[in-house]
Amino acid sequence: MRISTQPSFGATVADAKRMLRDWKNARKPAFVPCDIEALEMDEPSTGAKFTDFYLASLATKHGLKLATLDESIGHKSVFVIPA
User: Fold this and answer.
1) What is the phi/psi pair of residue 37, to 5°?
2) How far apart are CA 42 and CA 40, in angstroms?
3) pLDDT reported for residue 35
4) What's the CA gap between 21 and 74, in Å, rounded?
5) 78 phi and psi, to 5 degrees?
6) Which end of the chain has fewer CB atoms surrounding its CB within 10 Å, N or C?
7) What pTM does this model have?
8) Which residues of the chain have pLDDT under 70?
9) The pLDDT value given to residue 83
10) CB–CB of 79/65 below 8 Å?
């Protein structure tokens, strides 16, 4: 929703919520619980990467990859989406 509501994409928050709801209804994604504590996650190189590393560590625990456009995260469980 954060990306959808950026000026370059132009969706309103209501539009972004509708698009997400429609996508979830069509794709039926699995829910991944946030079931690791911060003390269990891989250690980021800086505090600015804390959230990215938490999500990537969560992906690792569940045998998944964190799909992102950010090439700078530097975690083994990150999949950078080609732009």
Assistant:
1) -90, 160
2) 7
3) 96
4) 31
5) -95, 135
6) C
7) 0.75
8) none
9) 81
10) yes
